[in-house]
Amino acid sequence: MKAACIQMNISLCSKQKNLERALSLAEDAVSKEAELLAFPEVFSTGFCYDHIAEVAEPASGPTLEALCDFSNEHRCVLAGSMIEQREDSEISSEKNIPTQFNLGFCIESGKLVGIHRKTQLYGLEKEYFALGGDIHPIRLKKYGLSMGLMVCNELRYPEVSRKLALEGADFLVSASDMPDFYIYPWRIMSLSRAIENQLLHIACNRAGNDRFSTYPGRSFIADGWGRILAEAGKEECVLIGEIDLEEVKEIRQTGSIIEDRRPEIY
User: Fold this and answer.
1) Would residue 258 count as lying in a domain?
2) Per-residue model confidence as pLDDT tens digits over 91-118
3) Is residue 266 in a domain?
4) 3-state DSSP of the chain
5) pTM of the predicted model, to two decimals?
6) Does any domain span residue 202?
7) What CATH number should be reported for the domain holding residue 117?
């Protein structure tokens, strides 16, 4: 299987422009036979705090609808994150709880097959997003594999990827919006999450800049030994990596990291 990181620049608050750019890059990816495509965090808007209520939309909204259409046409898997408007039934009666989630999504062959609402928020996110409360892998029918989807700051917490691994994730995908001053720790953490769980990791970061920072890209695909299979530079690009699905399974069966854990003494 070929996987792709859509390492794109994101125009702050320009939803239609970003969506069109993402789909254009996705077309390039599938033309190179990519079957699994990962987008950066909040790829369609960036962290559009000034107009967050305007750009937020439900999972049934036009952004994921367009991605579902693309996925259906090309029979591919798409994963990333976007700003979700919480449904009325989900909005807490408690005061000061934001009405948006940072929504991780996974689409397979035209259908939304799984979501993951970001559980570990950072900085200003805490003022604008509600906390997700669940961590579970997402099952892909075509490949018979389960995806462990993480959103940016969750990489700082080994517990997130470990819970995904313990629940049967076969590989990890992370969608990030990581700025230049934190790219070195991001790389180490992303590789560590792969090695400590013996799981392939598709780590997709954005490129470009906005009023908050500059984003250096550096997306990569690494196997469960931490070996880099493909790596991008700092410019906007489509990063393609070849994945041996049998090797993904074999690496997990080498050694007994998961089985030898001793949670009773941690």
Assistant:
1) no
2) 655 667 899 999 999 999 999 999 999 9
3) no
4) CEEEEEECECCCCCHHHHHHHHHHHHHHHHHCCCCEEECCCCCCCCCCHHHHHHHCECCCCHHHHHHHHHHHHHCCEEEEEEEEECCHHHCCCCCCCCCEEEEEEEEECCEEEEEEECCCCCCCHHHHCCCCCCCCCEEECCCCEEEEEEEHHHHHCHHHHHHHHHCCCCEEEEEECCCHHHHHHHHHHHHHHHHHHCCEEEEEECEEECCCCEEECCCEEECCCCCEEEECCCCCEEEEEECCHHHHHHHHHCCCCCCCCCHHHC
5) 0.95
6) yes
7) 3.60.110.10
